[in-house]
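Researcher: I've got a protein sequence and the SMILES for zinc ion. Could you write out the 3D structure of the bound complex as structure tokens? I'd like something to compare against our soaking experiments later this week.
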Amino acid sequence: MKQVDRFIHAGTVITMNASFDLIQDGIVVVDGAEILDLGPAAEMQAKYSAVETADCRDQIVMPGMVNAHTHAAMTLLRGLNDDLRLDVWLGYLMPLEREFVTPEFVSLGTQLACAEMIRSGITTFADMYYHEPAVAKTTAEIGMRALLGQTVLMFPTPDSPSWEAGIKFCRAFLEEWNGHELIQPAVSPHAWYTATPELLQACAKLALEFDVPVHTHISETLLEVENCREQNDTTPVLWNEQNGILETKLLAAHCCHINRQEMRVLKKHGSGIAHNPSSNLKLSSGIAPVPEMLEVGCNVGIGTDGPASNNDLDMFEEVRLAALLAKVVRHNPTDLPARQALELATIGGAKAVHMADKIGSLEPGKLADLISIRLDGVHNWPHFSNNPENVYSRLVYAAKSTDVVNVMIHGRWLLQDRALQTIDEPTAMAKAAEVAAEIDAFVLRRESSPYNKLIILEAVEQEEAYETQIKIPLQAADPIIEKLKGEPFTITKQTRYRQFDTYFMFDDANPDAARLRFREDHYLGEDNQVESSRSRLTLLGVTQLDELQNSVMLSRTRFMAPATRSLRFYREYFTPDQEIEVNKERRRWRVTYQENDFAINLDQVLKPETEGWFLEIKSRTWSHADAIRKADLIGQMLAELGVSDSEAIRKEYVELAQNG
Ligand SMILES: [Zn+2]
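Model: Sure. Here is the predicted complex with zinc ion in place.
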């Protein structure tokens, strides 16, 4: 008789194998990290002897659930900002993350998340966040299985100042963790709308090189789809396809607003979809057309999404919501019946995260990731035995995460009799309370900051991360204007306007947000009459400037919003410590130089009254490398214009005005 490590003796074994076999009074035979065999108890006892037997005869045993999409470390931000629109919510959260999210932060957040997920019967989760090496280390120490996507954004992030640095960071993460028995590292461009095409392509290339999955958000809101059609003339799924993302082992979160053609494209590429019912409801993103996805044959899993948008990691709640929501999509209560809903949470999720060869069902040769659950609570009583399939209904429509008793991952018990075996839950919770107190203090301190006040007020947009510019005083403008008319410049647009700027200065604000500019542009026609005007608010950092070659300046992220109210209103609302006015007449040319777009300004500063002209050449980009390349081009343009950079001024107009 063969000796094995463990018997798990169950009242009912739910296998979730291809024929959905149920085994009454069954034993799952575990040896090492694997399921060696399973079947009726008497049969298994005749074939094997086990060192240890877990008596779960009053429970059901089933495959551990797969949480197909989350941001685990955001447990530490749970409930901080609720009931906001997605863009405003992100606008609030991202600066806070830049302040707080360190490897220690994500490690603690991941501990809390793993504790909650294990208790809820999750054995594998698909994550997307920052500092994923710390997430990986913590998860592996705890003993959970995970697909961990290192986020790459076009904005500066908590772990990378530019997207190129993000790709490098991600590559190092893949090199360190690919091939680990529990951790599957992945590449995570956050979404197409926080990426440039170059960024998406770089992510796809990196994922293919290492043969690892890509985990991204696709078609979460209708607004996203509309923006994609407007900007790229196609849908988010097809835009990702055009940029190579679908060539990879893709896991696409949300897909609330995809059509049948996009479903077929995702199926053709073997992509996975993570359906996140709670998050989609809470952020009012919409209801994913799951029944139709399943008809087309897509791989659909269920995710909790991050605890800041859910706000818990309770897989039982998600499975139930998935089943219920599917029924209202087509007003058909037979859509997504209980067994199929549980399928999405187990083997379906395993397919979606590209791990179905190893997990998702209880079958010989698969890894021993399994859970046991009591179904005899008062909320799940009595039972009918006329149809054994009733067990799926009890699990999906009545069971709760608190009914989970034991959890095994990779042949190791992580929860026994509801006690966590590898996480010091009280200590993690106490530390989380300390972090929450720090975040509280930060939020209170920043409550009156111009940035926070701005986002409460308006639809704030983040502008391109990098601006390269040079400013040079001139005696005369005419020679420059003549040179712009010919080779090698191509003028694409020409405007002339008066610009009235009022700068609100804040003494002790964060340097990222120390100045708020209220700008009115009055566009002038042929006859010097004002033809149109617009007003904008821009939040600027204080001289966060690097000097590149040729005295070109590099500045960073800014936030912008349309100004819909009067200067007086903003003055009273923001209560600045100081106010500075700068008025000028600006002639602006948009030009193409060596296939790159630049803005060239010739400015006459009227207030404070200043002699002569200023030449400015500017370009904006999301890429640090591109900014440096453009600095070089600006040097060449100056030479073409016959201007020396030795006179260049490394100051904004407001600083010139401030210094008199
Ligand atoms: Zn998400």
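Model: The chain has 21 helices and 27 strands. Residues 69, 71, 217, 253, 305-306 surround zinc ion (CB under 6 Å).
Researcher: Great, I'll pass this along to the crystallography team.
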